[in-house]
Amino acid sequence: MIELSHVSKTYSEGNRAVKDVSLTIGDGEFVFIVGRSGSGKSTLLKLLLKELEPTKGQIIVNDMDLGKMPRRYVPKYRRKLGVVFQDFWLLKDLTVFENVAFAQRVIGVPNRVIKESVPEMLRMVGLSAKYKTRPDKLSGGEQQRVAIARALINRPEVLLADEPTGNLDSFNTHEIMGLLEEINERGTTVIVVTHSHEMVQQMKKRVITMDRGVVVKDEGGSR
Ligand SMILES: Nc1ncnc2c1ncn2[C@@H]1O[C@H](COP(=O)(O)OP(=O)(O)OP(=O)(O)O)[C@@H](O)[C@H]1O
């Protein structure tokens, strides 16, 4: 469960990016966060990742109070979350297999486990045939699927995605959204920041709308 109570974030320049936001996102929910450019969506994701500290308010993720979390625990906390961004951050000199395996190697997962878990994850995202390929030989949609596989390989309870389909055409957008839905059906909480009205309308999920740092609408979903 993710709980924000009275969270505000003011940047040092005095920019109030998030203003008194209170929200609860339950385990296994699928939530879109929408709103105009500059409305505070990315700031909200960064607060959840503990990349930024709130100026006011409290954030609790799966019973952990982020404000009380010791600094040395933060990398471990972040590894509990799956993160997907628009510009993928794939390692260009590594194959598809190694890009996904990397997320496990850094936390010391043994090779014999990686040899099973990575092919399974690549099957799930439909990329088994491309396991030896390097990212620059893949289409945008395929690269995005590698990024999703990498985000999910350590079985995070929460997946945070910032414009995951921003660079994709509508066919690939559908594919990626179908994949996120499948991941959600397997129990992962999915939070997607997007500008795509088409996607939001089709998916019929909970939609949180932000405007100038405030939640102005929160509707849909099964709550
Ligand atoms: N590092 C920063 N320092 C100062 N102000 C910032 C910083 N990052 C964002 N802002 C400001 O905070 C506000 C919210 O920005 P944020 O990136 O959260 O919006 P957003 O809704 O994600 O926008 P977009 O859809 O364009 O990505 C904006 O006014 C922005 O200019």
From TrEMBL:
It is found in: Cell membrane. InterPro entries: AAA+_ATPase, ABC_transporter-like_ATP-bd, ABC_transporter-like_CS, ABC_transpr_LolD-like, Cell_div_FtsE, P-loop_NTPase. Belongs to the ABC transporter superfamily. GO terms for biological process: cell division. One of its GO terms (molecular function) is ATP binding. It is a peripheral membrane protein. The keyword Ion transport does not apply. Keywords: ATP-binding, Cell cycle, Cell division, Cell membrane, Membrane, Nucleotide-binding. The keyword Kinase does not apply. The gene is ftsE. Its main location: membrane. This is Cell division ATP-binding protein FtsE. SUPFAM superfamilies: P-loop containing nucleoside triphosphate hydrolases. Residues 2-223 form the ABC transporter domain. Homodimer. Forms a membrane-associated complex with FtsX. Part of the ABC transporter FtsEX involved in cellular division. The lineage of its organism: Bacteria, Bacillati, Bacillota, Clostridia, Lachnospirales. Pfam families: ABC_tran.
